[in-house]
Amino acid sequence: MGVYRALAGYVPGMAIVLAVIPVTNALGGTQSAWVKFAAVVALIVALCLLLCYKKSKETATIDGAAEVVEESEQDEAIPLTEAVGKLFGNKYWVLALVMGLLSQVTYGLANSSGTYYCKWIYGDDNLVAILGAVGMIPTILGFAMVGPMNKKLGVVKTLRVSFLLGMAANILRLLNPTHFWYNTILGCISSFANIPMMCLLGVTTAMAIDYNAYKYGNRMVACSQSATGFGSKVGNGLGASVVGWCLALAHYDASMTVATAATRQAIYAFNIYIPLVLFLGMFVCAMKFDLEAKLPGIKEELEKRKLPK
Prior knowledge:
single chain, mainly alpha, 10 helices, globular
């Protein structure tokens, strides 16, 4: 489910990212061209959301039969402030939240920074289309390999391996940050390293929800999932904002013909330095997330609690 959800959301998004520079350049490359492109995309998104709302139907049945939930398995409603306090008392939920947040910052950076790298480091902003097209290869491979990796290594080890790959790719980019194909190949490895977290965030959150039941006697499913989702949205927006903040610190001028040293360092920062730190942070969180091995014992204890005394 996680792979399908990530694939269905990521691929159309990447298609839009690939179209941005060619389309806006075809429209004149001016601010007006960007406004027109954004307006069309926003209109399409709004229409899709309205269509989704119109055609969606909420139901409490499974295959035509009423879903029956045992009374003992139902969550007891608790105030939001109390639920949030308990969630932050669950270290595994916090770790899942942080990993999801950092991964979304990484996505936001990747989606927002390529244009600047191509224009000021490679000298041609149209190369962003090639970067995106090549980047689809590790993305598709990542979605295809998450399942086998998870089966072989387990959820947490899969994440640890992917975060290590992301760290290694960004460290190697420091050796030669200006060579197009060298950085494109390493960027593909970094893209691949992002995919497992995209697919498995829901799995780590579900593990944390089981721990809620073990620790508090209440799964708090809705609150756990919604808070994680909110964190993900914040992370994506934060990643895009970091690009602007770095450029502002470098006193970026879009009308310049040659990038200043400060601008080049800002571009390296949000393309290489910051992603490296983010992958390191996710790896540290994954090393502390030792819940997977404890789950069988936790579920056994939860089953015992259901037995009549």
